[in-house]
Amino acid sequence: MKVGVITLGCDKNTVDSERYAAALVARGAEMTTDLGEAGIIVINTCGFIDAAKKESIDAIVEAGRFKDEGSCRAVVAVGCMVQRHKSELVEALPEVDLFLGSSEVDRLLPELESRGLLDEPIEMHPGERLFTGELAHVRYLKVSEGCDHGCAFCSIPLMRGRHRSFALDEVVREAQLLELQGAREINLVAQDLAHYGRDIRDGKGLPALLRALVRETTVPWIRMLYLYSTGITPELLEVVAGEERIVPYLDMPMQHASDAVLKRMRRPERRSVIRDRVAMLRRAIPDVALRTTCIVGFPGETEADFTSLLEFLEETQFDRVGAFTYSPQEGTRAFEYEDDVAEELKRERLERLTELQRVITAERYERHVGRTVRAIVDRAADASGVAEARTVWQADDIDGVTRVATDAPAGSLLDVRIDAVENDSDFEATATRVVSVPAAEDRRKVRRLPVMATSIGSFGR
Predict the structure, then answer these.
(1) Share of the chain above pLDDT 70, in %
(2) Are residues 287 and 425 in the same domain?
């Protein structure tokens, strides 16, 4: 049976989809990117904001068409949106054969088996995760599940539950598996990386995990995504500053900079705390790239609040900012607030913020022109001889690219000289040398823990 998997939403969903794929292949399935030939189509949905829900529903409807036009025998919808809205979706989308929320995915194999869609288990299990994307050298490693913060606007705790850290040895073992599969960059993901280990209470927090990953793997780049500023400690800064393989990059969501809005949002930080953490980061790691996210149009946001946000962005000079307009999510505290900022005004504020940050990013990037820095090749050179790469300051898929003339294959590390900034967030560069990295057979020698298969529900379900 051929299976197609569609992944929507965040990088944590990418990790989940890779686990579903591995489990399906272990039961005799064959993965395909051509949905027209897939016998089973699995859509891993996102329910974070309205736009994500619409994208998920559109993907489900499109998959349903293959039951009439292709070889599809079953459409399966899983993930966050299903967790939150299963009863409504069952009624609205009869083309779906199976709905499984985030807490129900252990039923995926038994349910498909009961329908006669899976074969008996095969001898060789492909592992905990099976890569199905485009860049095999760039992988995501989820270190915890759920969230305890309780922000007023966020439905993640309703979909993913309370925060649960995965055991340090299990996370390291999974990183070793990803390394064996060819990972050159591992991106650590969680709702808040800084909360890692707090619930286990064994003293092994994020700094200990980072040290273990450096010690027990030879992956050249380890990157941290999504870490609240209140969790940034002197010990964490010491580890990041002292370990060359931990790239100087932090994705630190602040959501706003007006204390009045932050209070209504039920955020743990205030403007002064964010300012102090940014200053502390830049003192400890002078070359650090800082990314943040902002919500505009939150209930009660006045023009003065929004101006305060813009002023803070000008003052703080984040390297990158991801911004979106507020949309009320049923079940959250903010859903009870009056959504009193007009949609047109939300969009206008978003455009103003985006334009301001475009200029800031361009200026921040200009300071790197003339420097020689490390980069990773994501896509080998096309007919023009130009490859697509990224520097340490550019996270996969969100921070622009670096174009460089090289015949180095994807996954290679280069030293490049930054020649110019293009499109405000891209670099033009010249390769100065190819950096040697351990070969796959050599990396196997560093294994301290066995690589073992686990069920798709074993991490945090």
Answers:
(1) 93
(2) no
Tell me if 346 sits within 8 A of 325, measured CB to CB.
Answer: yes
Do the beta carbons of residue 13 and residue 7 sit within 8 Å? yes
Residue 446 predicted with pLDDT over 70: no
441 assigned to some structural domain:
no
- pLDDT given at position 30: 87
> Phi first, then psi: what are they for 43, rounded to 5°?
-110, 115
Sign of CA dihedral 354, 357, 359, 361: negative
Task: Kindly state whether residues 415 and 316 are assigned to the same domain.
Answer: no
pTM of the model as a whole? 0.86
What stretch of H or E contains 202? none
- Cα gap 91→72, rounded to integer Å: 21
Asked whether residue 130 is domain-assigned, the answer is no
Of the candidates 313, 331, 366, which is a domain's last residue?
366
CA distance linking residue 324 with residue 365, whole number of Å:
23
Query: What is the C-alpha to C-alpha distance for residues 11 and 185, in angstroms, rounded to an integer?
Result: 14
Q: How far apart are CA 435 and CA 332, in angstroms?
A: 49
- The C-alpha R_g of the chain, in whole angstroms, comes to 22
pLDDT in tens, 133-188: 788 899 999 999 888 888 999 888 888 888 899 999 999 999 999 999 899 999 99
For 51-71, the pLDDT digits (tens) are 888 888 888 888 888 887 878
- Summarised one tens digit per residue, pLDDT across range 219-264 is 999 999 989 888 889 999 999 999 999 999 999 999 999 999 999 9
Co-location of 193 and 313 in the same domain: yes
CATH number reported for the structural domain that contains residue 391 in this entry? 2.40.50.140
Least confident residue range of 64-78, 231-245, 275-289, 297-311 = 64-78
454 pLDDT above the threshold of 60: no
pLDDT score at 459: 42
**Residue 60 resides in a domain:** yes
Q: What are phi and psi of 370, to 5 degrees?
A: 95, -15
How far is Cα 106 from Cα 120, in angstroms, rounded to an integer? 17
Number of domains in the chain: 3
Instruction: Evaluate the CA torsion angle 168, 169, 175, 179 in order and state its sign.
Output: positive
β-pair type (138-142, 185-189): parallel
Domain end among 99, 114, 129? 114
Domain that holds residue 182: 138-366
For residue 425, give the nearest of 383, 379, 393 by alpha carbon. Answer: 393
Let me know if residue 82 belongs to a domain: yes
Quick one: 145 and 283 in the same domain?
Answer: yes
**Cβ neighbour number for residue 343 with a 10 Å cutoff:** 12
